[in-house]
Amino acid sequence: MKEKFLEINRMLVEIYNDVTHIEEYSIKSGAFKDLSITEIHTIEAVGLYGSRTMSEIASKLDITMGTLTIAIDKLIKKGYAERSRSDVDRRIVNVSLTNKGKLAYRIHEKFHLDMVKEIMTDFSDEEEEVLLSALNKLNKHLKEIYMPAVNK
Question: Using CA atoms, how far apart are residues 5 and 47, in angstroms rounded to an integer?
Fold first, then answer.
């Protein structure tokens, strides 16, 4: 039993590392070489449509406002995002993507979809369902372990 748990752990770590490396390679060899994975994930957190407050983005990324401010400043300087103050409450800062930021978002989203499509070509319909069920269970358990207050 212990060997099985060690093998599952090894595979989870290896898969995480492989996906991260593939993602890094894709970014560095693609049209948006000037972005880091962290910046791409910040772009994803800002979202494609409308704007989000700095607080919403920081919460989604689980980072401090200070860390987010630095990240958004970099994205603004590179032309991927823009910042504006709320008309209702000037203390609230909204962030939205520029057209360049939206393009980066869409290309990165396509990268993920293409990667999943490629992975799934060797799976039968039944295997796809089993994998999806197992990933849903894994995701649920991880959230219960690391974010118990959110899930109750």
Answer: 37
Residue 90 phi, psi (nearest 5): -60, -15
Rg (CA), the chain: 18
Q: What is the DSSP string of the chain?
A: -HHHHHHHHHHHHHHHHHHHHHHHHHHHHSTTTT--HHHHHHHHHH-SSS-EEHHHHHHHHT--HHHHHHHHHHHHHHTSEEEEE-SS-TT-EEEEE-HHHHHHHHHHHHHHHHHHHHHHTT--HHHHHHHHHHHHHHHHHHHHHH-TTTT-
pLDDT in single tens digits along all 152 residues of the chain: 789 999 999 999 999 999 989 988 888 888 889 999 999 999 999 999 989 999 999 999 999 999 999 999 999 999 999 999 888 888 889 999 999 999 999 999 999 999 999 999 999 999 999 999 999 999 998 888 876 555 44
